[in-house]
Amino acid sequence: MDSRRKVELDQLYEAVFIAAEQVYAALGRGLEPELYLQCLSHELTLMKVTVQRNIAVPVLYRDLRIDKGALLPLVVNGLAVVNAHSEPTLTAAHDMAIQAQLRVSGLPMGLLLGFGTPSIRGGMRRVMNPAPRV
To answer: Does the residue 37 lie in any domain?
Structure first.
């Protein structure tokens, strides 16, 4: 990954973190993930970050194309998929799910947000795609 892309991804991570802090401070813990994603989308839009919701990504299996193979809940700046969760801890299952989304989408970065954790700082995890196509 070139240094310009790394800086771009770091800035995007920081923007999502700031937006997530705002949402967490206002709503607290334990609500439905979809509510957090809607509010996060709004915060990011106010920050002039490009947001896309519920993006269907095709999955190719041999000679079969499944048009709605994977659903990305939130994509920011066309570079990162964001998943929100309300459980008290992020687990290996959350990591596997976002890694699969990165694999099929080709996006370089995934962000897991744990809105059920005691602080959003401790509940945010960055996952990098080892073979991004974007």
So the answer is: yes
Question: What CATH number does residue 122 fall under?
Answer: 3.40.1350
C-alpha to C-alpha distance for 16 and 81, rounded to whole angstroms: 11
pLDDT in tens, 32-86: 999 999 999 999 999 999 999 999 999 989 999 999 889 999 999 999 999 999 9
Separation of alpha carbons 122 and 107, rounded Å: 24
**102 in helix, strand or coil?**
helix
Measured CA to CA, the distance from residue 116 to residue 90 in angstroms comes to 9
How far is it, in rounded angstroms, from Cα 123 to Cα 83?
12
- Stretch 97-109: mean pLDDT, rounded? 96
Q: Is residue 134 part of a domain?
A: no
